[in-house]
Amino acid sequence: MEVQIAVLDYGSQYSQLIVRRVRELGYHAKLYPPHVLKDLSGLAGVILSGGPNSVSDPDSPDVDFEVLEALDVPVLGVCYGMQLLNKKLGGDLKPSFTSEYGPARLCIENDDHLFEGITNDSQVWMSHSDTVSQLPPGAQILARNEDGIPVALQFREGWFGIQFHPEVTHSHEGRGILKNFLRQLDADPGFDVEAFKREVIREIIAEVGDREVVCGVSGGVDSTVLAVLLHEAGVKVHPIFVDTGMLRKGEAVEVQKQFAEVGVEIETVFAEKRFLDALKGETDPEAKRKIIGNLFLDVFFDHAGTVELFAQGTLYPDVIESATSGSIASVIKTHHNRVNRIMELKKEGRVLEPLSELFKDEVRALGTSLGIPAYALNRHPFPGPGLAVRCPGEVTKEKLDILREADHIFISTLRKHGWYDKIWQACTTLLSSKSVGVKGDVRAYEYPVSLRAVISEDAMTADWVEIPFPVLREISNKILNGVRGVNRVLYDISTKPPASIEWE
Ligand code: XMP
Fold it and tell me: Do 276 and 305 fall into the same domain?
């Protein structure tokens, strides 16, 4: 499927959200490091993302301006992207007196193009520290903020710049503004899940040939969709489910049931002892992730014999967040599917990642189109390294067993009250520092657990959920009375950023 919109990534945490929004509007978009623009063809438009730099810094990232002009397609610069275009076209910038982060009002002066049908005075979301001080020749101001500062420009026909982030939901009419930009393209929308499915199945068949694909399944949305997709493609597939001992209560049985329902046979490998032994004494979060990722592969190799091709359900955000796509965004965590071993296999052309262009909700849509039942697709995300990342400090069987019980109470009580489906992800973390309490007149020096429930669109940002106090009270009472080893229950009220969803 041909990419229609290149989003050049200048390092904003929101860059991939732009891609997502454009796809939601039906156009096939992908994120690229700016320097690859010269290698792209067939584009219908280009968007330059925001970024943390100032265009005035001598080593700030640039754009290949001649290539951009030669494409002769509509261009939108967002935040840093707008400032870069402004400078390139002969305008100038100055540092703002105050950095502007957060909500601003959109005061529209010209609604011919980007702002057609957009409400004057609607909220937009700013995040910048430079301001346009001089317009390039021929440019015009389309909108200002409430302080009179230009926040949207038309540089020339089809070329626009906006100082705010239309891709975040805090820009209330951001979607409409992006839609107006996309209307300028000389192309019809070309992205939909059915078309993607047909194409990806064709690609799988071509790439796999008669080789056998070993495929890791966890029961989560991504690997379930992956296994069913491979099954549907009719290639030889050997799905292996590793019970690492880091799974939630009853999860192994549930996963087996789930695959039986969709008609895919899986092999289960019990490897709890190997994982616990490997993690013994390790307390560093990144080291724990690496150990688990590598051991996961060892277990695969041990059980699959010769692995001709290894398939995994890596998603687009994993690719971007681990900064392996050449993106400027920094490595935040080592995702378990990007450890060195996988990268080595990749170099040998032995890794198949058919979902690596998709966002989570697109994978769910693909799953629906493959006939996977809703309950399997609507399960909360669960990290590859499992409960190990919810057990700060050393991971032990004792701690995992306590955590499993507490988590089971949390999740089942949310389900009972109809909250599970309203929440994007709920998780329990067993904190490593014990606290003093009293149980049955006796001093109890036990673990605290922290409950976290968030809503999110794609895990890039998240907000905590206002679960009603009576439900929290019920969960807390059940945990304190029913889980040996826990004497304190906390509810995490941190947004992401700055807190990530998982503790490690
Ligand atoms: P954070 O903690 O970074 O998590 O806010 C964002 C989302 O990613 C999940 N997560 C992972 N998923 N492998 C995965 O497959 C991993 O190593 C991993 N680490 C975090 C996390 O549960 C949340 O949904």
Answer: yes
**Amino acid symbol at 423:** I
Please pick, among 28, 100, 167, 362, the residue that the annotation labels catalytic: 167
Q: Is the CB of 315 under 6 A from ligand 1?
A: no
* 115, 152 contact by CB (below 8 A): yes
Catalytic residue (choose from 28, 128, 165, 238): 165
Q: Are residues 43 and 161 in the same domain?
A: yes
**Cis (ω within 30 of 0) for the bond into 381?**
no
Residues 31 and 151 in one domain: yes
Label residue 166 by pLDDT band (50, 70, 90). very high
- Tell me the DSSP string of 134-176: EPPTT-EEEEE-TTS-EEEEEEETTEEEESB-TTSTTSTTHHH
In the chain, % helix, strand, coil (3-state, to 5) comes to 35, 25, 40
User: What's the pLDDT tens digit per position in 403-430?
Assistant: 999 999 999 999 999 999 999 999 999 9
Read off the pLDDT of residues 171-199 as tens digits, 9 standing for 90 and up.
999 999 999 999 999 999 888 888 889 98
Torsion of CA 309, 314, 319, 324, to 10 degrees: -30
Same domain, 482 and 354: no
On whether both 176 and 265 belong to a single domain, the answer is no
| 177 and 211 share one domain | no
Q: Is residue 123 part of a domain?
A: yes
How far is residue 167's CA from residue 47's CA, in Å, rounded to a whole number?
A: 12
**Per-residue pLDDT tens over the stretch 336-376:** 555 666 778 889 999 999 998 888 888 999 999 999 999 89
Q: Using the Cα atoms of residue 495, residue 503, residue 482 and residue 218 in order, give the sign of their dihedral.
A: positive
Expressed in angstroms, the distance from the first to the final Cα of the chain is: 37
Residue 152: domain span: 5-182
**Closest residue to atom 21 of ligand 1, CA basis:** 383
The answer to whether 79 is a known catalytic residue is yes
Burial of 472 (0-12, 13-18, 19+ CB in 10 A): middle
Rounded to two decimals, the pTM is 0.75
Shared domain for 354 and 467, answered yes or no, is no
Q: Which of the listed residues 247, 321, 335, 452 should we mutate to test ligand 1's pocket, taking the one with most ligand atoms within 8 A of CB?
A: 335
* Last residue within a domain, chosen from 152, 182, 212: 182
